[in-house]
Amino acid sequence: MKRRHPSRVAIVTGVGAGIGGVGRGIAARLLREGMCVMAADVDPAVEQVIQDIAQAQGIGPAGVAWFAGDLGSESQVQAMTDRVMARWGRIDVLVNNAGSGVIRPFLEHDAASLAATFNRNLWTTVWCCHKVLPHMVEADHGRIINIGADSLRTGIPNHAGYNAAKGGVVGLMVGLAREFAQHDITVNTVSPCVINTKRHRDALAANKEVTKEFVRVVPKGRGVEIDEVCDMVAFLARQESAFMTGQDISLNGGSAMP
User: Fold this and answer.
1) Residues 81-97: b if buried by 16+ CB within 10 A, e if exposed
2) What is the reported pTM?
3) Smallest Cα–Cα separation from 12: which of 57, 46, 52?
4) Nearest CA to 169 among 237, 225, 97?
5) CB contact set of 188 (below 8 Å; sequence gap of 6+)
6) In terms of C-beta density within 10 A (0-12 exposed, 13-18 middle, 19 or more buried), how is residue 161 classed?
7) How far apart are CA 41 and CA 180, in angstroms?
8) Residue 219: which H helix or E strand, with range?
9) Distance between CA atoms of 117 and 114, rounded to whole angstroms?
């Protein structure tokens, strides 16, 4: 098995067994980049997910860790952060991928659905940044990468509540990017459009009208590949991205342009 030393340590949230697979892809990519990875998710399956990824890459148990808990909870995020510091003594990269949303017309939302949407998307990011940043400041180095949503630009139907939460993530990014720039800490957001999952491809194949409309809206005619999201995250995690901060980077196949 490959041995690795904690030269760089990353936390990736949202590494569960869900349909999207973005978190799993990012964790796998950062492991290939040579980092030690803490995978976190509300789903207890996160343990098996990260172990499977490590085994597939020939990485020993020293290179990975996992945390299952509510990342919208301050105390749970503190426990996760303490676990990383106890294990490796540093945090270089934080990828805030945890999230999902209750997608419905705005007037059909209630207090519970809006609270769930904000907790999963905004509060997870807020608390992870809040608990990780002191360690990055002490090290005078860090890379924070949020996974956003291109629906902020395109205004697709039934996303007002979700967009409010993801818009909060972008607002947080801007404030943190300015506040911590002098510590070689960058804060950026990667905002994909529709992910090219099997579910998405099946939906297009089943309805020619939907396919026609999708191509009209997205000139590339497909969703973004998980590997393409991972490529951008990996770049933003590197030293070469040191001068890029406070940016919301759209991976949308041309569906929204300046």
Assistant:
1) bebbeeebebbbbbbbb
2) 0.92
3) 46
4) 97
5) 144, 145, 146, 173, 177, 236, 241, 244, 245, 246, 247, 248, 249
6) buried
7) 26
8) none
9) 5
Give the three-state DSSP class for 191: strand
Local confidence pLDDT in tens for the 258 residues of the chain: 555 556 899 999 999 876 568 999 999 999 999 999 999 999 999 999 999 999 999 999 999 999 999 999 999 999 999 999 999 999 999 999 998 878 889 999 999 999 999 999 999 999 999 999 999 999 999 999 999 998 888 877 888 999 999 999 999 999 999 999 999 999 999 999 888 877 677 777 887 776 667 667 788 878 899 999 999 999 999 999 999 999 999 998 888 787
Cβ-Cβ contacts under 8 Å for 2 (sequence gap 6 or more) = 57, 58, 59, 60, 63
For 101, the 3-state DSSP assignment is coil
User: Strand 64-68's sheet: what is its strand order?
Assistant: 64-68, 36-41, 9-13, 93-96, 142-147, 185-192, 248-251
Q: Among 255, 88, 93, 247, which Cα is nearest to 174's?
A: 247
Distances (CA, A) of 234 to 52, 71, 141, 158: 20, 22, 16, 31
Please name the residues in contact with 248: beta carbons below 8 A apart, sequence gap of 6 or more.
148, 152, 170, 173, 188, 189, 191
Residue 28 has a pLDDT of 97
Within 13 Å and on the Cβ side, how many CA atoms surround 47?
Answer: 4
Catalytic residues: 162
Q: What is the reported pLDDT for 1?
A: 57
Write out the two tokens for 95: 């990828």
The alpha carbons of the chain give a radius of gyration, in whole angstroms, of 18
